[in-house]
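Weekly structure sync, notes
Attendees: PL (lead), two postdocs, one rotation student
Agenda item 3: pending single-chain targets
PL asked that the sequence for the first pending target be pasted directly into the notes so everyone works from the same version. It is reproduced below exactly as submitted, 155 residues in total.
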Amino acid sequence: MFRNITRLTNCVSGALRHSSANAKPGPAPSVNRVEKTINQVTLLGRVGADPQKRGTQEHPVVVFSLATHANYQYNSGDLLQKTDWHRVCVFKPYLRETVYRYMNKGQRVMVQGRITYGEVKDEQGQAHITTSIIADDVTFFSKGPTDLPPPEESS
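Predicted structure, written out during the meeting:
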C-alpha cells in the first residue's frame, strides 16, 4: 500500500517538474477559482439579558448579549478583569426559537458562528459601525453550583 502512495507521489512531483520546465514565460493564465477563507468565532460566556425578538415577520432574528472576560495581573500584583460584550444574532429558525424560549440572563453558553460588521445611522444621521456574531450553534450549559439558588431547609 505504501509503495502505491510513493509511486503516486513520485508521479505527481515528476509531472509538476515537467510542467514547470516547459512553462512559457509571461502572465499566468486566468483561472476562475474561489479562494477558501475562514470566518469562525467561538465564545464561552454568560448571557447579559434575556433574548429579544427583532426583525420583521419575513426576516425574524433573536438577539442577545454575551459577556466574556480576560484576567490580567499587573507587576504590582493587582488583578484586573476586563469584560467584553458581544452582540449575538440568531437567524436559523430552529435555533432562534430554542434560544428565545430557553435562554435566560446569567446563563452560561457557548456560541459558535461568524463575525460580521455593519453600519447603522442614529437619529442625527451619524453612521456607527456595528459588530455582531451570527450564531450557527448555541450550546447551553447546565446550571452549576454558582447558578443554583441556595437549598431550602426542610422542616
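Discussion points:
- The CA atoms of residues 35 and 73 lie 41 Å apart.
- The longest helix spans residues 2-21.
Action: rotation student to compare against the earlier draft before next sync.
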